[in-house]
Write the structure tokens for this entry.
Amino acid sequence: MENVHDLDDLQESSVISTSFQQEADKQENFLRPKMLCDFQGQQRLKDNLAVFVQAARERKEPLDHTFLIGPPGLGKTTLASIIANEMGSEIRMTSAPALDKPKDLAGILTNVTEGSVFFIDEIHRLKPALEEMLYIAMEDFEIDWVIGQGPAARTMRIPLPKFTLVGATTKAGSVSSPLSSRFGITCHIEFYNEKELAQIIERSAHIMNVLIDDKAIIQLAKCSRGTPRIANRLLRRLRDFASVIGDGTVTTEIVKHGLDKLGIDQSGLETQDRNILRTIIEFYDGGPVGAETLSISVGEAIESLEDFYEPYLIQRGYLKRTPRGRMTTKKAYDLLGIPCKRNMDENQGILF
Ligand code: ADP
């Protein structure tokens, strides 16, 4: 057992924050919806969550442990804080890479309050020893703690207040089944459609006091990669262009000009997206190529390649993930204006 420490060690560590202070981007927090009714899109998920929250409140019990799955920027952190707000409870936030030793996790667990929400981001990166501690904490609301060493060592079972664990991941496949099976509620967050993104942009523009034309909202929604974080980020940048080269209003001309300057095309593809597709086509004959090789070739961390770039390229039909590696589709050749001399099938990638 690794968790050999004095009980005094179980102090709340610096890896936790009790509210939003932990977030680096204050602007993002400013735009974060606080309640379910402000959270745009994801209707089925919201409807179900509203039922589970209401039922838990009526029973005066904490909400069941909740697992949030989806690509970055789709609202996992936002939903965790909404759950706490809707339950009328406090939230503690951390991320798995910040939890190094069992005492880091034990320190937080022994300090959560009854009914509170404990949010662990990137839960797929939790170390095995911590994951094991979490199993008992989630199931029995207890942790095992070893005091002393050698023959004198003894295990203490420490009771914990009943809390709700909200775990978020971009990689559901990397979460072990003993952990994922301990969540009573699983929410898959999908990419947002243009209408939903338009509503998010409209709401954010209102909060930020940005004047934006209706047509510009639609244009911006189209190139936000189905992702609210990107929609909000682009809105902030276009506000800059509008105030420097325009009259302060984000118009369709400002959107066109701004996106051009930022290297983003009308469907939201960035320079690096095109670079990834071009690299697969020119260096690897359209694929298949492994993720690690590709990440080195394009100079992008494998995490951002897999979590940020690939999901959107796959969703737009430019890329396929196959057991043998990544492959471009005919649509990617067409996008880059590269003639394809090989036998291609639009849906299948290159045929061998
Ligand atoms: P994740 O944790 O999945 O990476 P976040 O919860 O941090 O994503 O969301 C990123 C930003 O996008 C937040 O600032 C929030 O304002 C915005 N956002 C996310 N989902 C929604 C939504 N459904 N409605 C409105 N804004 C949203």
